[in-house]
Design brief:
Elements lengths: L17 H11 L11 H11 L6 H11 L3 H10 L11 E6 L2 H5 L2 H11 L12 E6 L11 E4 L4 E5 L3 H12 L7 E2 L25 E3 L8 E3 L21 H5 L32 H9 L5 H5 L3 H10 L6 H4 L2 H11 L1
Parallel strand pairs: 1-2, 4-5
Antiparallel strand pairs: 1-3, 3-4, 6-7
Helix pairs in contact: 1-2, 2-3, 3-4
Bound molecules: FE2/S2 (inorganic) cluster.
Length: 336
């Protein structure tokens, strides 16, 4: 990698906005007092967005002051990672992947488009709309060739590009039009062109729903991508002909789960549920909120109770069983 240096020409003055500082403080608070320098990368990223796509030297100093770091340490990091731009960029900054899979699939053609429209690598177009650099693999090789295009709000991948589709994409961005990210041909994510050819039937994973670990709590995905399909309706059962016995039989109620509820810890101090591996302060609060305070309550859970509690506290299905809450609660209850 060639040496990267701060821009010779810097703005006369620059200050991070109040909202950028607030976001940086949010990240700083995530780390212990003597480890707050760990917030450097997110702080630089926030500063880059705040400054319009690049990081002026004044912002580096401000971040150094916020994190209690020598400025040289901040410079060392910002000049190492190519995700940080050290010079002003265009409204749409293009990082074109030139690594082997993308190169084999035609990234040279895309580079030719960029050179013709914008100029040599590192240039900004005359209207200030576009700028570009070549980068190493961005991890989307299955959809090579590809580019990441960033603006003030987003950082999006555009994949399965050809010189023609890339030209059209750039035209649209310059014209201020929105272009859907992802494959720019007929592919859906990294499935084969023309549609998926595997796992298409009614196998064990059909319609399986997984929870995304880093997404907001309720976000689910089907294993085939996209939103989960609506649950299929069970075929309507034919009503059995009524017999004399069935006419008289009282309607059967569904068995009630046997979670022991209380309105509060009425008989003494509540148990410390956090002693159960897998229950942290959040789950303990949620369980208490549902009237569950004691090991003995959890120790009595059956499968139906576990299922219901998982829904009540919005836990990942199967987690309570996997972490053996019931078994642990039994042991703790016995110890008193
Ligand atoms: S080689 Fe281009 S994304 Fe991996």
């Amino acid at each position: 990698m060639s040496a990267r240096r701060l821009a010779i020409s810097q703005p006369d003055s620059f200050q991070l906005s109040a909202s950028a500082k607030k976001k940086i403080q949010h990240w700083i608070k995530k780390y212990p007092k003597d480890r707050q320098r760990s917030a450097l990368i997110p702080a630089l990223w926030i500063a880059q967005k705040d400054a319009g796509g690049w990081v002026p030297e004044a912002a580096l100093r401000e971040i150094g002051d916020m994190l209690g770091m020598a400025y040289i340490r901040v410079y060392e990091v910002v000049t190492f990672y190519t995700m940080f731009n050290l010079e002003p960029v265009g409204e749409h900054h293009i990082q074109l992947c030139g690594t082997t899979p993308c190169w084999l699939r035609g990234s040279d053609d895309l580079i030719a488009v960029l050179k013709r429209r914008i100029g040599p690598q590192g240039s900004v177009s005359e209207d200030g709309k576009l700028s570009w650099v070549e980068v190493e693999c961005l991890g989307a090789c299955a959809n090579a060739p590809m580019a990441q295009i960033s603006n003030a709000k987003d950082d999006m991948y555009y994949e399965d590009l050809t010189a023609e589709s890339f030209e059209a994409l750039l035209d649209n961005l310059v014209a201020g039009k929105t272009v859907d990210s992802g494959p720019q041909n007929s592919r859906h994510t990294s499935e084969p062109e023309g549609g998926n050819i595997a796992l298409t039937g009614e196998g064990p994973y059909h319609d399986t729903v997984v929870y995304l670990p880093n997404a907001p709590k309720k976000t689910k995905m089907s294993v085939h991508g996209g939103a989960p399909k609506a649950k299929r309706k069970a075929p309507a059962k034919k009503a059995a002909p009524k017999t004399a016995a069935s006419k008289k039989a009282p309607a059967q109620k569904a068995p009630k789960p046997k979670v022991i509820y209380t309105d509060g810890p009425t008989d003494g101090k509540p148990d410390d549920l956090k002693k159960i591996k897998g229950i942290g302060p959040k789950f303990e609060g949620d369980l208490n909120g549902k009237g569950i305070y004691y090991y003995r309550q959890i120790a009595n859970w059956k499968a139906a109770d576990v299922k219901m509690v998982e829904e009540l506290i919005d836990s990942i299905p199967g987690r309570i069983k996997r972490d053996e809450w019931v078994k642990q609660a039994k042991t703790l209850a016995k110890k008193g």
